[in-house]
Amino acid sequence: MNKDKVLQYKAFIKENLPEWRDLRDDEINIEKLSSLSNQVYKATALKEGLRRNPIIFRRFAIKEGVVDRLKEHKVFIELARRNCGPHCYGGNNKYRLEEYFPARTIKNLEYNQVNIRRKLARVLATLHKIDIPNIEKIPLFEKSFSDPKFYQTFEEKCNQNIFSEDERKWIEQIRLLSHPEEKQFIRDILPTDDIVFSHNDLLQGNILIREDNQDIILIDYEYSAYNFRAYDIGNMFKESTWEYGHPEPPTFKVVDSHFPNDEDLRDFIRYYLAFSSMTDEEQRELGDRLLENEEEMKEYLEKFDEDELNERVAKLLKETKIAVMLSYYYWAIWGIKMSKNPDSDFDYFAFAKTHFEYYQKMKKVVQTHT
């Protein structure tokens, strides 16, 4: 790491953590953690007895207008207040100090393990019932795709003379995502009901499993906004197929077999709908038991009309597959906007290209079943 930047980071930490203010620079250790866009560090005070030790230091990446930093900070503070995310110890538009959890990120093969899959259903159902004040309830995609700047910044990046000859050939294909016919197709297929507060970026690094009690914690709400509820489900399981951190370029690969089959998705959806229907009191009294005892969950689901429940499951399953397609569409455009970023070694162009290819495949699936 650049020594001058490390000194800046340590100065910011000491300025915002009174307990650390008198530490010497050599008494603070900074360790870089894995992350896709932001730079995330674990900061540890090498002195016993200090509160808030260790902490997370986050340096925000330049997101080319795709992140509303003020809104994201409001959401972060509100979720911390509700114990739905880490606490904030200080921050500005460049850095933030966050609560550190003794936890690890979820593994690709764990998303669809029965016990974890059902815990994820409970966590998402709980998140989607939260009402965030002072945040407009216009769905993310409706807002993004109606904003001329969303496509304008994408087109501007496509037109820059920064891509190789081979990359330019792909750019000419990928830029078709902003063609009027393609945009109209996306608008027409967007679900318009069941709009909830959503995370919108449930990749591996944003889903933590605590070491002490195996609870699941969602972090990094930069892209959070109101959205149709299937999007978090589809995007999350789509991300289960993406393996990051490979040693060879482009440092990721997609493993299709990680994606759950329809029956596993139905199981997830049934648990999600069950937890969505519960009051906070029912969650406290029944939540853990229903996760641990499948027969009790079956009994709980008997309170629903069977035909109506099956219709709701089928509807959400269909919308989940639309969500997977939209995830590929959205992140393909995002990847081009982020490509050739001097602050990151990650190959965002390869990221965008792969998303575009999978968008084309998933579009055929959706069109066949629509």
What does this 3D model show about the protein?
- This protein is an alpha+beta fold and 370 residues long.
- The protein folds into 2 domains: 3-99, Phosphorylase Kinase, domain 1, CATH 3.30.200; 103-368, Aminoglycoside 3'-phosphotransferase, Chain: A, domain 2 (Alpha-Beta Complex).
- It is 49% helix and 14% strand.
- A 5-stranded antiparallel sheet has the order 1-2-3-5-4, with helices on both faces.
- Strand 1 and strand 2 (39-45) form a beta hairpin.
- Helix 3 crosses helix 9.
- It is globular and about 65 Å long.
- The mean pLDDT is 91.
Q: What is the CA-atom radius of gyration, in angstroms?
A: 21 Å
Strand count, sense and closure of the main sheet?
5 strands, antiparallel
Distance linking N and C termini: 50 Å
Unreliable residue runs = none
Q: The CATH topology of the largest domain is what?
A: Aminoglycoside 3'-phosphotransferase, Chain: A, domain 2
> Helix fraction?
40-55%
Q: How many β strands by DSSP?
A: 12
Strand content: 5-15%
| Succession of helices and strands | HEEEHEEEHHHHHEEEEHEEHHHHH
Overall pLDDT: 91
- The first-level CATH class name of the largest domain: Alpha Beta
CATH homologous superfamily heading of the largest domain: Aminoglycoside phosphotransferase (APH), C-terminal lobe
Count of distinct structural domains: 2
What gross morphology would you assign?
A: globular
* Tally of contiguous helical segments: 13
Produce a short descriptive summary:
This protein is of the alpha+beta class. The protein has helices at 3-16, 69-81, 114-128, 140-146, 148-159, 165-174, 180-189, 230-239, 262-277, 280-292, 294-301, 306-338, 348-368, and strands at 28-33, 39-45, 55-59, 88-91, 95-99, 103-105, 195-198, 207-210, 216-218, 225-228, 242-244, 252-254.
